[in-house]
Amino acid sequence: MMSDLIVINKENALEVFTGEKLDDFLKQIEDDAMNFVPDISTDKGRKQIASKAHTIAKEKTAIDKVGKELVADWKNKAALVDQSRKKSREFLEDLKDRVRKPLTTWEAEDLARITAEEELKELLEAWEDALKEDELFDRQKEVERKLKKEKPTSRQDSSAKRK
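Above: the chain's sequence. Below: its structure in token form.
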């Protein structure tokens, strides 16, 4: 019968949880438990069974606690790395924006200039079209005026015929 709990501590935890030692520990606990032959018919035997089950539960808790502490340390280190990564991302993103700002400003001004030039070009084209339409309108009015002068009205025709 095994009297001492199997000890996994901080010094050997990484080796135990990442190598084959955990299987060795679990096999040792299982062998001890399975080799235990209590007498269920006696009060002492039943107490031994309860004690053995309690010992196994303590082993489970002890192993889990060491593993949890090991992982907690990793998580703390990972959190520190993540904080540093975030800090560097934010800093460098801001630095990139500051370095690029003159170009961004120039691009915005250039786009505004190009847009203004295109709008002016469209306005001038519309102005030219309006002038051409106005000139055409003036010509049509001039033609109509000349036609009116040349074409006698029906009153003038009838009076000319009478004479």
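The mean pLDDT is 88.
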